[in-house]
Amino acid sequence: MKKPICLLVMSFLFLTTLSSPVEVLAAPYYEGKVLTIIVGLAPGGGYDRMARLLAKHLPKYIPGKPSIVVQNMPGAGGIIAANHFFNLVKPDGFTIHSLTRTVFNFQLVKDEGVKFDARKYSWIGSASSESTVFLIRGDLPYKSFADLLNVKEPIHTGYVGTGGSSDIVIPHILGDYLGLKINLIPYPGGNRDIILAFERKEIDATYLTYSSNKPHIKRGLVRPLVRGRVSAPEIENLPVNEDLVNDKKAKTLMAIISAVDKVGRPYVAPPGTPEDIMKIMREAFRKVAEDPEVKVEAEKMMMEVEYLSAEESLKSVNFVLNQPDDIVKEFIKYSKL
Amino acid sequence: MLEAFAEGLFLVLHWKPFLYMLIGSAIGFWVGILPGIGGATTLALMLPFIYKMTPQEAIPFLLGMHSVVQTTGDITSVLFGIPGEATTVATIIDGHAMAKKGEGGRALGAALMSSLVGALIGAAFLALTIPVVRPLVLTFGSPEMFMVIIVGLTCISSLSGRGRRGLLLGMMTGGFGFLASMVGQDPHGGILRFTFGQLYLWNGLPLIPVVLGLFAIPEIVDLAVRGTAIAGNVPSENLGKGVKEGIKDTFRHFWLTVRCSLIGVGIGVLPGLGGGVSQWVAYAHAVQSAKTLEERSGFGKGDVRGVLGPGAANNSKEGAGLIPTVAFGIPASAGMAILLGGFYLMGIIPGPEMLTKYLPLTFSMVWTIVLANIIVVAVSLLFINRLARLTIIRGNLMMPFILLLTFIGGYTANNSLGDLIVVLISGGVGYLMVRFGWPRPPFILGFILGSLAESYLYTSVLRYGVAWLYRPWVIILFFIALGVALYPFYQERKLRKRMGVGR
């Protein structure tokens, strides 16, 4: 009597273990844990707000539903965080980094502070692409970029960044190759100082991110005339900056900037993070970008969440960083004034 | 207009907005008192919570926090000599000196009451001038901003000690402050200056750790050396009465308080100067109001007017800072920039609509500042006697606590260990400055304004060539700066003459 029952129980147990779903084994990894997103800039900016939006919604899509906190590590335009993340953080999947995309430019121009290689991070992907546009002051009479080509006076162009960012490189190239007298004027205080300078009619033009300046375009303070390769619905019809020049080198330089724009909000894990953790992360990011709740909240903040896969992101990054020496030299030349 | 004004009040008085305002004020109360954590950072941390709120609830929540931070920041500055906020450093000079004399209650009463007056004046300014402020802000281009900074820098002459030696020392420390602000990447070409190969220094020396080290550490050392409580060996009965004295002082020197509030408003409304400047200009003005030579030297040793000035100015700049933020979407400071993010989140686009469609909402901001400050000041006054008693606790019990606050404050500003080293080094420098009688306020002023001055000058020259010197406001501001710089000399001569006549 005992033997058959024993056999029944044993086979029952055996069958249940065989049929248990794989997730039951993988779920505990993030169970009850805290995932930290390190942001390389101060709170309040675009990267920070995107990170906080993701921190709110990602847990649903990560098995184990970890709580996510955002930690700011500002300094040197994002280089400090990028260095720290490359060299000091354990690749255990509990810390990821919202990489400041301009650090690719810093690495390209071989900046002395760069102690990381952007290609070697374990890439999750990018949470959005950022279009950049050439903006002209609303009350000026130029309706298209072609109108600017005949202008003899200096075009006072504001810029924010240092070290190879698009707001210096693109106007500089456009000026040199198209014979425009672009007078680059620094506004280290940031986007808001440039907008104020527009209000005061102190500057005529600038080359900045489209999404950050949508409110000002809407109210007519500025008008976009040219865009980078990364587009957005409202600016689809604008000429692309690469198409405005004929020289191959100039086109490549602009293509480099556009490639950086494409990987607009890069997210990475430390080099050497195990593949199965990377899979979880990439899936979670992909799903979060499709979440309708996230779309609504992002739109309120004038942001857009659009997942660019790790392969696509790496393609762009490699394009930027694997350039031959002569192109790098040209890039360095145009990132100065 | 008047209906909108009243409607704004009713918006805040509904139970949900009012509750959120109370919560915001409670958060702001602690953020102000704790050194290191600033109003701007806290605003950023509070933003995720407003997703589900309506604008009428979110604004009292955010503003309720941000507008009381300056009020309670003065408390820490007075009691412990540690700046509760980067904008309450000037209150330390005379406020903490008063605490050491046993007049802590009086200093607190003065600080709180002047904060309230300042907040009310700032709010009133916000209410009255939004329609007309646009031309004002637009006239001030980069050259004019540079001249405003020069005016600010000339206040150094009033912040220095007395006499020619005092002025010389003040100029030198101001110059050192200016030099210290040059550390990091230059704004034009990104060239690194004074970074000694350290990536940490690329952004320059961080303000909060420098200020904490410069002011807090020498106080702690002083406390240790004296071996007494903060208030020395003064008997404790005076503390309670002191608070009422402080409140009365605000009204005794009412016009000074009002003038300093107006200074806070004037500087706070200009985007690009940040919040840290108004307190020093107001302090310099308070010093200039001294009527005798003894009074002038009394500043820095515990003159209540040295508390009233900065106390009022750092609150009035709040209301003023909202003006460009709301009227054009140009934030006047880092905190305002984050608040702007909050507006966008709620679908409010700053601009002409704020004065038409959303006028009641704009007035609700005014009322939030008013009500939040009244409530916080009232609550603080209730507790102030207990708080003032902290100054009679034995020094060696207080020291570890103050030291801990200082270092945590220094660390939490940027989560960076490098900041702690900066705190220590600035502490060493600050101690030496106190020991040898070199004044610290000019250093801080030079430090805050140095890199700002450089970038505005650069921008002005690049944009206008030499022509910027001929702009009308530039010339006007130049003469104002000259006046401010020379006033202490004029003041001394006038006072000496007066004393001669009196003999």
Describe the structure.
The complex is a heterodimer of chains A (337) and B (503). Chain A is α/β, with parallel strands linked by helices and 337 residues long. Chain A has 14 helices and ten strands. In chain A, the strands form two sheets. A five-stranded mixed beta sheet of chain A has the order 2-1-3-10-4, sandwiched between helices. In chain A, α7 runs antiparallel to α10 and α10 runs antiparallel to α13. Chain A is elongated and about 100 Å long. Chain A starts with a helix and ends with a helix. By secondary structure, chain B is mainly alpha-helical. Chain B is built from 23 helices and two strands. Chain B has a two-stranded antiparallel sheet. In chain B, β1 and β2 form a beta hairpin. The longest helix of chain B is centred in the last third of the chain and has 31 residues. In chain B, 59% of the residues are buried. The chains are: A alpha/beta (337), B mainly alpha (503).
**What class would the helix/strand composition of chain B place it in?**
mainly alpha
End-to-end CA span of chain B: 58 Å
* Contiguous runs where pLDDT drops below 50 for at least 5 residues of chain B: none
Task: Specify the number of helices of chain B.
Answer: 23
The H/E string of chain B reads: HHHHHHHHHHHEEHHHHHHHHHHHH
- Choose one word for the global shape of chain A: elongated
Overall outline of chain B: globular
What letter string, H or E per element, gives the SSE order of chain A? Answer: HHEHEHEHEEHEHEHEHEHEHHHH
How many domain regions of chain A?
Answer: 2
CATH topology of the largest domain in chain A: D-Maltodextrin-Binding Protein, domain 2
